[in-house]
Amino acid sequence: MQAVRNMFRAAWTSAERLEGKTVVITGANTGIGKETAIDLAKRGAKVIMACRDMDRAQAAMKEVVESSGSQQVTCMRLDLADSKSIREFAEAINKGEPQLNILINNAGVMVCPYGKTADGFEMQIGVNHLGHFLLTHLLIDLIKRSAPARIITVSSMAHSFGSINLEDINSEKSYNKSGAYSQSKLANVLFNRLLAKKLEGTGVTTYSLHPGVIQTDLWRHLSGPQRFVMKMVSPFTKSPVQGAQTTIYCAVEPSLEKESGGYYSDCAPASCSAAAKDDDMAQKLWELSCQLLSITWE
Ligand SMILES: NC(=O)c1ccc[n+]([C@@H]2O[C@H](COP(=O)([O-])OP(=O)(O)OC[C@H]3O[C@@H](n4cnc5c(N)ncnc54)[C@H](OP(=O)(O)O)[C@@H]3O)[C@@H](O)[C@H]2O)c1
């Protein structure tokens, strides 16, 4: 019902400015992340593009600078499939940046063949959830000191097809590439929900979202019938600029200042699945994530 209502809403626009604010966007060299970087740079924010490939990052940064007219855009190396890289990135941010007002956990991989991160995690749960969980953990003190601040995690409506397999989170016993993607996107919503509770009273608010169905490089691993279906629906998909709007809404909309932990789509609150509201599972996933990453985060 909410989805139907959203279809008839006027497009969201905002003249909100972000001078003096610092933003980190993961996976900002292409797709939704790059369009988000352009928009937030236009609003006057200092934008740090966190990307795994520095050649692609430099080329994208040039585009972001040209399109936004802002010189306050930089790129830094971050490979979410490697906790060493995540730690190096976070250390550089913690040392080099006096503040971090908006963290956008955007990077993602979808339905890739079975693979493992440097730390031995299945690639989709490893990059989409565990990588962002560790990154957020390592930056949280700086983000708290920068309050009011926001943490945005880009999930997907695919979360509603997912379940968390606590006994085999890395799909070692059996791997279904769509199931592993859905699991990782459900993990994003559960993480966002519990993170909001843990951050109550700190001035840091959190948001997760479905950006829409957008033609981006994310589809690179689709094959066979899935690729055919995506080709058929492609005339009805959003552009990357349209796909970035809900992320931008969560990052800048003033009326969201007092909201935290919610799920959004089409620049409005949206319903997430029952599994995504399971606080007991959110807690278990949090504990398992800490254990896998060898961190303590109460
Ligand atoms: N497109 C859709 O229809 C859709 C729908 C629902 C949700 N989403 C979500 O939207 C987010 C952005 O996706 P998109 O559509 O913009 O896809 P995209 O164009 O493929 O962008 C994904 C970004 O993530 C980066 N990335 C992948 N693995 C990484 C790693 N190990 N370390 C650091 N960065 C990594 C990619 O870097 P490289 O360029 O180096 O690979 C790229 O910059 C994802 O979280 C996705 O799940 C997208």
Descriptive report:
By secondary structure, the chain is of the alpha/beta class. The protein has a single domain (17-293), classed as 3-Layer(aba) Sandwich (Rossmann fold), CATH 3.40.50.720. It contains 10 helices and 8 strands. It has helices at residues 2-7, 31-42, 54-68, 83-96, 123-145, 177-198, 224-233, 240-243, 245-252, 279-293; strands at 22-26, 46-51, 73-77, 102-105, 149-154, 204-210, 262-265, 268-269. The protein has an 8-stranded mixed β-sheet, with helices on both faces. Strand 5 (149-154), helix 6 and strand 6 form a beta-alpha-beta unit. Helix 2 (31-42) packs parallel to helix 3 (54-68), helix 4 (83-96) runs parallel beside helix 5 (123-145) and helix 5 runs parallel beside helix 6 (177-198). The chain starts with a helix and ends in a 5-residue tail after the last helix.
Kindly report the name of the CATH homologous superfamily: NAD(P)-binding Rossmann-like Domain
What is the average per-residue confidence, as pLDDT, rounded to a whole number?
95
Q: Poorly predicted ranges (pLDDT <50, ≥5 residues)?
A: none
Biggest sheet overview: 8 strands, mixed
CATH-derived topology: Rossmann fold
Number of domains: 1
Distance between the termini: 37 Å
Biggest sheet strand line-up: 3-2-1-4-5-6-7-8
Radius of gyration from the alpha-carbon trace, in angstroms:
18 Å
- Decide which structural class fits the backbone: alpha/beta
Helix content: 40-55%
Number of helices: 10
Q: What global shape is seen?
A: globular
Count the beta strands. 8
Annotate the secondary structure layout:
Layout: H1 2-7, E1 22-26, H2 31-42, E2 46-51, H3 54-68, E3 73-77, H4 83-96, E4 102-105, H5 123-145, E5 149-154, H6 177-198, E6 204-210, H7 224-233, H8 240-243, H9 245-252, E7 262-265, E8 268-269, H10 279-293
Parallel strand pairs: 1-2, 1-4, 2-3, 4-5, 5-6, 6-7
Antiparallel strand pairs: 7-8
Helix pairs in contact: 2-3, 4-5, 5-6, 6-10
This protein binds NADP nicotinamide-adenine-dinucleotide phosphate.
NADP nicotinamide-adenine-dinucleotide phosphate binds at residues 26-27, 29-33, 51-53, 56, 78-81, 106-110, 127, 154, 156, 210-211, 213-214, 216-218.
